[in-house]
Amino acid sequence: ANAAYDQANTANTKASSGWNQANTATTLAQSAYDQANTANVTGQAAFDKANSANVLAQNAYNYANTISGSSGSFISWIGNTANSAFAHANGSFSTANSGLSLAALAFNTANSGVISAQAAFDKANSANTLAQNAYNAANTANTTANIVSSAFGQANAAYDQANTANTKASSGWNQANTA
User: Fold this and answer.
1) Segment 135-151, tens digit of pLDDT
2) Residue 78: phi, psi to the nearest 5?
């Protein structure tokens, strides 16, 4: 019974350790999830800025293309400047799109971590329940063993009393027979 009790205690300790690990994993996964959300918000802000810059650059490009006048070099300069701004805005837009894609990937990875951490947490809870059941069974066996030990002690005492009574009866019989 003591061995079963010790086994149950060991299982309970291991289950508690697993439960603690699962809690740590859940905390870390939540942190990753929060970070991914922050990256997603930041990526969306960069995307919005790039879209805004793209609209402004397109407007400047369109305006530069519509300017007419006698100075061809000025118009050409404006057109080149607008084209450069447009290319720069497109580069910003592409970078923001990449950032948004990375943020979405981080978000999905964090979600996967949360799901895995929850599964580990559930497993640890299940192991803890099993360990508790084993602990309870070991306690029941220990209590039963104590009751059996007590009954055995009482039976031995009754046996000793019967032996003493038998010895006295035998002695009395011998005295009666010799008289």
Assistant:
1) 777 777 777 777 777 88
2) -60, -45
